[in-house]
Amino acid sequence: SKGIAVAASLIDAHAGGLGMIGANVKGYNLPCENQPITSRLAVICGTSSCHMAVSKSPIFVPGVWGPYYSAMVPGLWLNEGGQSVTGKLLEHIVQGHAAFPELQTKSEARAQSIYTYLNGHLDLIKKSLPVGLLTVDLHVWPDFHGNRSPLADLTLKGMVVGLTLSQSLDDLALIYLATVQAIALGTRHIVETMQVAGHHINSLFMCGGLSKNPLFVQMHADIIGMPVVLAQEVESVLMGAAILGACASKDFASLQRAYAPQTNSLCVLTLGQ
């Protein structure tokens, strides 16, 4: 109706990046605390994952989309990396294993998600070892649906190395862990490629369904060697859309001012936590 402000829309991943990349991090002793948001990488991770980095000047990164001017944050250039399958890959690996029916039965008996159960099972079998070392003989190449970034090669295929004849729940848990690690290594490859091209990233900000999986988040912190920040407001995509609406309402002079009132509590996971 007349008088209702309508904001210009954003792609879902762009809205998620907007909804968290400017979060207030004062008091958390993060390397990005006294630095501009160009030191942050927003990772929006669900069925697939997108990796959003902004810069004051255009940076051309091989195999990474952009740079796009003012596409996510006004006045800044956006580069967007991506992994075509992440959550979908975990689902594919787990549901295709012979022990999946056993996993379903046991997780339902405990009223847990299959991933919560697998994370707990890994804690049981790791004993005194760091969980990341359980897969020393098992490795996954995660490009089951091609590689979006940074290789930009849709013909690539996935691979699992180190398989045995085992069909046990232990084996399923280890392949799940190796897949999580492979996804984190893919993100590391994207980050390193961005860094070489001229970005200066020192912190990851993560949202989306996979950010609710503690193992997934921790493996990213361990493998990339950077803190991973989770906002208390888990619906960062909706937050980004709300920021656009607030700006369109003209109650705020700019998008930056619309963002300013947000002082989310944060959860920070660091290397080896």
From TrEMBL:
One of its GO terms (biological process) is pentose metabolic process. Gene3D superfamilies: 3.30.420.40. GO terms for molecular function: D-ribulokinase activity. Pfam families: FGGY_C. SUPFAM superfamilies: Actin-like ATPase domain (SSF53067). Signal peptide: none annotated. InterPro entries: ATPase_NBD (IPR043129), FGGY_C (IPR018485). The keyword Thylakoid does not apply. GO terms for cellular component: cytoplasm. Keywords: Kinase, Transferase. Residues 41-248 form the Carbohydrate kinase FGGY C-terminal domain. This is Carbohydrate kinase FGGY C-terminal domain-containing protein. It comes from Micrurus paraensis. The lineage of its organism: Eukaryota, Metazoa, Chordata, Craniata, Vertebrata.
